[in-house]
Amino acid sequence: MNEFKGQRVLVTGASSGIGAGLAEEFARRGAVVGICARREARLDEVLTRCREHSPESRRWVCDLADPEEVDRLASAALVELGGVDILVNNAGIPKRRHVTRLDTSTVEAVMNINFFSPVRLTLALLPQMLERDSGRIINVSSVAATLSSPGESAYDASKAAVTAFSESMAVDLWETGVKVLVVYPGLVDTDLFSLPDNDPVLAAIEPVPVSELVDGVFAALDRGVIQVYVPEYFADLASGKAADVERFLSGTAKYVASQHAGDR
Ligand SMILES: NC(=O)c1ccc[n+]([C@@H]2O[C@H](COP(=O)([O-])OP(=O)(O)OC[C@H]3O[C@@H](n4cnc5c(N)ncnc54)[C@H](OP(=O)(O)O)[C@@H]3O)[C@@H](O)[C@H]2O)c1
Predict the structure, then answer these.
(1) Residue 184 known to be catalytic
(2) Which of 23, 25, 55, 91 is 20 to 30 A from 100 via CA?
(3) Which string of DSSP letters, residue by residue, matches 189-250?
(4) Given this model, what pLDDT does residue 263 score?
(5) What is the pLDDT, as a whole number, of residue 205?
(6) Pocket perturbation via mutation, ligand 1, pick of 59, 192, 217 by most ligand atoms within 8 A of CB
(7) Diameter of the chain by CA atoms?
């Protein structure tokens, strides 16, 4: 269970949900974990659990919406951890909103946290991975990137951007020792669905526990694959959509209309 012993892992958005789950599992498997988010008290709770297994683990309170804070986080991680072997770009916000009620500043805010901040952090930490010719970049995308979930156009676009960036980066780095994993959570039981200032979730899908997502990520790391869907059946949904986009989108629109039938 100590296969990550001595590895230095930076996890963004680790004050709750998937980020907290991944950070704690890396610590349990022997890694020194660095975690960050805005909510200090929640971060401290996660850090306490990480330190039970990995006493050198640490945390930084930071707002990834601010590019200067992203740069400061990268520098602090390099100095205080002595380097970053595995970067987990996990922090994200949904801002579920029907496109008729969407404004540009909301789209920019979503792109900023879900896309520009992980890209900035990646570009800051990639050189030291390349110097060692070793490293892993785990980017948490979403099934929304491929399944065009309704009422989430800003979120879907930000996650599609994460996916496109990650896949292109993986090709650029193919011959190096730096490997990329793109994670596609389906519906995972976290705070993401009870955040204020978001439309209700439309999908009537039973969420899976964070532990199932964490197990899926570690199994994917073991296999050295480039992408992982959790639950796995979302991969079939994504290929089904790719095979017939028209059918998939019209089916989604019909489903949304049926959900709103009672509103009229
Ligand atoms: N849950 C799902 O079904 C699902 C599905 C697909 C994809 N995802 C993705 O999984 C990732 C984790 O989400 P989750 O489901 O675990 O939800 P969550 O519990 O709400 O976690 C989101 C994390 O991001 C952090 N964060 C948000 N804005 C931030 C900011 N400006 N600066 C720093 N940290 C920030 C939050 O911490 P603070 O609030 O403390 O800053 C929190 O730790 C996200 O990228 C999400 O899009 C989740």
Answers:
(1) no
(2) 91
(3) -SGGGS-SS-PPP----PPBPHHHHHHHHHHHHHHT-SEEEESTHHHHHHHHHHH-HHHHHH
(4) 60
(5) 81
(6) 192
(7) 61
> Containing H/E element for 184?
strand 178-185
Q: Which residues contact 159 (CB under 8 A, 6 or more apart)?
A: 92, 114, 141, 142, 144, 145
Give the 3-state secondary structure of residue 47.
helix
State the pLDDT at residue 201.
Answer: 76
Atom of ligand 1 nearest to the CA of 187: 3
Q: What was the pLDDT predicted at 1? A: 65
Positive or negative, the Cα torsion across 105, 249, 193, 90? negative
pLDDT at 195: 79
Place of tokens 């009537």: 204
Ordered structural domains, the chain, with CATH = 8-263 (3.40.50.720)
Site residues for ligand 1, CB cut-off 6 Å: 13-19, 37-39, 42, 63-65, 90-93, 113, 140, 142, 185, 187-188, 190-192
The series of mean pLDDT values per 10 residues for the chain, 264 residues long, is 90 98 98 98 98 98 98 98 98 92 96 98 98 98 93 96 98 98 95 78 84 98 97 96 96 88 60
Measured CA distances, 109 to 1, 55, 66, 102, 144 (Å): 39, 35, 10, 12, 17
Euclidean distance between CA atoms 145 and 52, whole angstroms: 36
- Cα 37 to ligand 1 centroid, rounded to whole Å: 9
Tokens of 147: 């399944």
Distance 237 CA to ligand 1 centre (A): 23
